[in-house]
Amino acid sequence: MAKSNARARRKSTGGRYIKFRKKRLSDLASEPTLTGLSEIRKQRVRITSGKIKIRLLSTNTANVYDKKTKKHKIVKIKTILENPANRHYVRRNIMTKGTIIDTDLGKAKITNQPGQEGAINAVLI
Questions:
Q1: How many whole angstroms separate alpha carbon 75 and alpha carbon 64?
Q2: pLDDT for 110
Q3: What is the pLDDT of residue 30?
Q4: Which CATH number characterizes residue 109's domain?
């Protein structure tokens, strides 16, 4: 079933909203991209005005920033330790913004949206 970003038909009190326009194609929403932990897989998606968004379907590396040395390193992700978005994502190895991951350098926190940017950026904790 299609997801929608349009306004609800009813108010929180149960009363109806009066329609002010028809349905639009721009009201359609996409399914969430749940970035997994495995070999790198990406998907190109056309968005509004013909631009391209690269979705990261799965990956096993991350761009980790070390605050002490002030340098970035590409490191391998071992496992997912904690996910504030959904506690069940830890068992399914799904990464979102704010997820704590275990890397070769130590624990790191994801600082971007991997499903919308095509890479994982993290900061060492």
A1: 7
A2: 97
A3: 86
A4: 3.10.290.70
d(C-alpha 66, C-alpha 124), whole Å = 6
| Domain enclosing residue 87, as ranges | 33-124
68 inside domain: yes
- Total number of domains in the chain: 1
User: From CA 102, how far away is CA 109, in angstroms rounded?
Assistant: 9
Which tens digit of pLDDT belongs to each residue from 52-79? 999 999 999 999 999 999 999 999 999 9
The pLDDT, as a whole number, for residue 122 is 97
Q: Which of 57, 59, 62 is nearest to 103 (CA)?
A: 62
The residue type at 107? K
Q: Is 13 part of any domain?
A: no
Token output for 6: 């349009």
For residue 96, the tally of other CB atoms under 10 A from its CB is 19
pTM: 0.83
Asked if residue 99 is part of any domain, the answer here is yes
